[in-house]
Input
Amino acid sequence: MSQIVDTLEALLFVADQPATIKSLAGAMQVTEGQVEQGLEVLEARLEERGSLRLTKLAGGYQLATKPEFAAVIAAFLKPQRHRLSKSLMEVLAIVAYQQPITLSELEQVRGVQSDYSVRSLVERKLIAEVGRKPVPGRPVLYGTTQEFLHQFKINDLKDLPEIDPERDDAADIVAKTLFDD
Output
């Protein structure tokens, strides 16, 4: 088991995105059950010591630094914050809750033209084309991406905060909940 745990740690260390149990099992040529057991042992080992922890995110697993190291890491890296404008947050919230959704449906909800916002969110890889609506003209359907889940530390779309669709400020509430630090 020690070899499996060490190998899992190495794979998760080099992974540039959350790794699924299936992909880990395939790379290691072991069963998914063995990977699950190894992840449990690795999680316990990391909790006991060190600066890393195992996180479940966007349907997979990855290594992350423990929260107590956030300030010193931020000071070291001096990350540039890429804030989303209010209009981008609103579009992203609408897509997240009503996906799959077409551009025209999105514009009906917002009451304003939204093609620039959609293009910008596609470029940031927060939303993507997920298909075509089976109606005349076959408009593109948009939905959120794994990057969206990863960026906003959500494991699954079911984890989105509940909203009251009758409230005029529902998009603002979602934006504050998800996107404010």
Observations:
- Residues 102 and 136 are 13 Å apart (CA to CA).
- The mean pLDDT is 86.
